[in-house]
Design brief:
By secondary structure, the chain is of the alpha/beta class. Helix content is 49%, strand content 16%. The protein has five helices and five strands; from the N terminus they run E-E-E-H-E-H-E-H-H-H. A five-stranded mixed β-sheet has the order 3-2-1-4-5. Helix 1 packs across helix 2, helix 3 packs across helix 5 and helix 4 crosses helix 5. The longest helix is centred in the C-terminal third of the chain and has 37 residues.
């Protein structure tokens, strides 16, 4: 399984590609950051992020794209920028028919470090160890993107089993219902009396 992880952001959008399967050693195929200038117009920044992500999709041909799920913070401006960059990543993947998965920061931290409250340094250290890298990827956005990809590889089999179980249960519920007849019941004929002349 090859996954492109995207840690969305307007100024720095972390991207990282990891390949492997759950339970086996993973391989990093690439890591980086798509940057946009803070003083540029919003529309131009989003176009720059789109171009950057498209380049990563062209180069690495991932089977899945894992994006950090945006959650509420006190700084609404930061959340808006993150959500906009997230939407661009989802659009780029969906346009190519690549499945997109959203993972919360706590899910990613728990998957990679064992604790949903881990800090960025702990995430970076575990990403370095899991991918057998010489040093933690910098900046932290790049390490977070790799952590997203790792999280998806490890969680995907369980998520797929849950989705298959839900689909099977829904199918069983539909087939167990007694089908309603589509025929309209006939009304009994009323005898007609002839009036004598």
């Amino acid at each position: 399984m090859r996954v492109l992880g995207v840690d969305p952001g307007l100024t720095r959008c972390g991207v990282g590609v990891v390949e492997g399967v759950a339970g086996r050693p993973l391989t990093m195929l690439g890591v980086g950051v798509v940057r946009t200038p803070a003083d540029a117009e919003l529309g131009h920044r989003l176009v720059a992020i789109e171009r950057g992500i498209e380049e990563w999709l062209d180069e690495h041909r991932p089977e899945f794209v894992a994006v950090e799920r945006v959650f509420s913070q006190h700084n609404v401006r930061t959340v808006m920028g993150t959500a906009q960059a997230s939407a661009v990543a989802m659009l780029c993947a969906s346009r190519r028919g690549i499945p997109v998965a959203l993972h919360t920061p706590s899910e990613v931290k728990a998957a990679v470090t064992g604790s949903g409250r881990a800090d960025k340094a702990q995430v970076g250290a575990m990403v370095t160890r899991l991918l057998r890298l010489a040093a933690p990827p910098k900046p932290a956005d790049a390490a977070d993107a790799l952590a997203l990809a790792i999280c998806h590889i490890w969680r995907a089999p369980a998520v797929n089993r849950i989705q298959q179980a839900h689909a099977a249960a829904a199918l069983a519920a539909r087939t167990s219902r007694v089908p309603r007849t589509s025929r309209v019941p006939r009304t009994p004929a009323v005898p007609v009396r002839k009036v004598p002349r």
